[in-house]
Amino acid sequence: MIRRFAGNFTSLSLHLISFMLQARLDAGRTALTEVADSYVCGVADVPLLGITIGRSLDQAARRWGDREALVSPSHGVRWTWQELAERVDALAAGFLALGLTRGARIGVWSLNRPEWTLTQFAAAKAGLILVTINPAYRLSELEFALAKVGCTALVTATAFKTSNYVEMLNTLVPELAKAQPGDLHAARLPQLRAVIQIGGPICPGAIAFEDVMLMGGARHRDALAALAKTLQFDDAVNIQFTSGTTGSPKGVTLTHHNILNNGYFIGRVMRLTEADRICIPVPLYHCFGMVIGNLASLTSGATMVYAGEGFDPLATLETVEREKCTALYGVPTMFIAELDHPDFAKFDLSSLRTGMMAGAPCPIEVMRRVSQLMNMRDVTIGYGMTETSPVSFQTATDDPLERRVSTVGRVHPHVEVKIVDLEGRVVPRGGSGELCTRGYSVMLGYWDEPEKTAEVLDASGWMHIPRSRTYRFSASPTTATARNSARGSRRDPARR
Questions:
Q1: Which tens digits make up the pLDDT trace of 334-355?
Q2: How much is the pTM?
Q3: How remote is the C-alpha of 356 from its chain's centroid?
């Protein structure tokens, strides 16, 4: 197991960490073949999924059609898998009617809403690349993200609390006010053609989200069906921006294969089924929400439950109790806020079983309280980075609590990890070096930055952590462990 305090789903902003990695040996199968080498390969009992996200949604609708797929009480939404699939198809056809073509980038700038998830799945079905934009972005950051990847369309919320997204967008793109909806021509964002607005009142030049869902006609539905036969699971489907702590944010480009499989195996580790209901208070723009949340649900049949647009500990506790959620996600600060809420003891959380804690260092005492006081006896911890879709390591639900609170678990199935020296040679166990990851989860690269990509992704497919970070791998013949020697200082994804 990798010993540290929590999963860190950032890109290259990791601080000094030393590793301890455990690989269990199954009868007749060994994940570690040489005791002397700092190398491990995740053993798999099932193959990778070889389908697109759109096909996965179609399968979910056929398999679990009448079961609840998405529940968002604050928005009055309670959709079955069949209803979700129908709405996704309508929106995807609308995207085609707007003139969006395969490979075009579509941004989404919003907190957790049902429209966010509709956009995620519809973009995948329409062959578009979803660009997830942090709702906390200010004008300069928004402009950089949209311009960097050349977004053709932007799905935006109207406002949330003190953030007026439409007002900021009009400042950035003053041409919007006089533009024909869907035919924007802006000096600072020359590739942006359509602004799709969630909620209202609709600003001049924008298109109401609901109206897009009505735009697709029979020919667009036919085109969508034809497109489904040509889309490949190795196509790019998502761009997520890194935090930018090592320079300007980089657009991590991920495929259907990357993130759909990662969600699938995360769900398998948590033993998710269609009977589970996952409370997802973590942000959807972050891989924690859209992959560990939405795609783990999609591939397991579990219900996605949104407690609100932004994180609120009381709303989360109320939602878990009312919706009888069986899983809850969060970074440590979110769980602490829930545990320390004055009304915590009033809530019945007996339905909870599992969940994921990640994104920041996890104090041992917090894990114990979550397991005991929140009934999350099967809670797991994960570790990874945006460039690896994100999870590479995860604790198991039946690991002893001491291991779950002090490690981030085993390497994921179908994933390889090694520790190398400055010459790129695998170091003996106990030596220090650089962590490298290879497998289905590794990104295509940084969007339009081949030089930056080449710095971290080598010709053999290994994803490297920056050489300023060092790791130590020590192991017995059957185990390897990694101890965290420093705290991360990255932005907590629960914060805006």
A1: 999 999 999 999 999 999 999 9
A2: 0.90
A3: 12
